[in-house]
Request: fold
Amino acid sequence: MTATEERRSPAVPGLWAIVGFLVCVELASGVLQGYYTPIFSDIADHLGIRDADVNWFEAAQLILSALVVPLLARLGDLIGHRNVLLISTAVTALGSWMLAFAPSFTTFLIGWALQGAYVVWLPLEIAIIHRRTAASGQQALLTRRAAAFLVAALEIGVIIGAVTSGALVEATSMTFLLTLPAIVVTACFFVIFFGIEDVRGASTGGVDLPGLGLITLTLGLVMGGLIAIRLQGAESLLAWGLIVAGLLSLVPFVRFEARLAEPLIDVRLFAESRQWPIQLTAFLFGMSVLGAQIPLSTFARTDPDEVGYGLGAGAGFVSTLIALYVITLVVGALSLPLAARLVGPRGALITGCLLVALGYGLFLPFHDSTVQALVNMGIAGLGSGALVAALPAAAADAAPAERTGFATGMTNATKTVGGAIASAVFAIALSATGSLEDPSEGHAALGGYLTVWAVCAAAAMVAAVALLVLPKPDPTEGTA
Reply:
């Protein structure tokens, strides 16, 4: 069979049925990511805590996410990606039910952290599809197409979640309101159980527990330092001491992992020219897609008549802005197959980075009106949607079959770490003359917001340059 005939051959039997089940999973993931944001203040009232204490939820979930992704990704390669998807969904459901019936701040915090297990869903789904298409002769192409649908479902779920919670918060009790996402995740477990075939992992060996301990130490120290900066300020010696200790602990970790045949984090795979630009891009992309959302929201809420900048938008209109931004993410994700056909997989990644850089770069001169903000966010959203879909697919394509779960999972892990670091840096920039958590206590200087946008734009440009190192794809594989 010629390459052309192979590319025109029918799709993998049953593939799109599996993608359909996984679309349901990503809809649930989107609901989780969009549902709580409009009602954080109501949750604070429900728990009897200050609005500023809600920041602990974000910190707890980021920490757990960064720690569990490497472990769950490795388990996926060992015992099967579908089985680990079930485990992570069960943990997420447990956390979601804890939120609904949490009697205290501490219980809610634990539940919120457990709910963070959902971050491994998309990488595991990409790994399932990548394995399912291994004998198709068009593995990368089908994986990219499926990833586009999954990310589109994710972003649609975000809109559904945000609109639903915002509409119901005044009409029902908080317990009932928090029960709805728990029901969605529980249903998701059964969708996976009955809809996805059970295939054992292709990797051998066991779980690298010493490596898990070392990376837990590293991430724990760095994340602890970042939290300390947010609580004590940039002058905190404890904070910087923790961060330095965490970075230094990477040295024994890398040396230990490099000696193992089956490490938790394959540092040798990371060093390959087909892999490290993708993982670096994920890290840098996390700075904008995870770190810049709160600053964008607070900027939109700031009254220009009072401080000289901002959009003066109400909470309801901010929700509209977020919905429009998410729609551009959907369009960006769905455009990935077309972009890959026109400029190649590497070109699609680079184009996504350039769009993110352009969108945030435009905020520097153009931030005085709602129209300008919408245009800027729309451009950045198109690039972000493409990157969310393309990064795990590209990582899977650049990894051996027995390490696809690891490679795709690490794109989420590095993105999370990048977002956490950026969140701390942006908090420092915005708290120079005011309070990020409570704008009534003082507003940040405009220079702080300019710093946020400049960092996001610069990070995306660095990622685009790094992606130039990626080898060009095999011309025998279709990109249409």
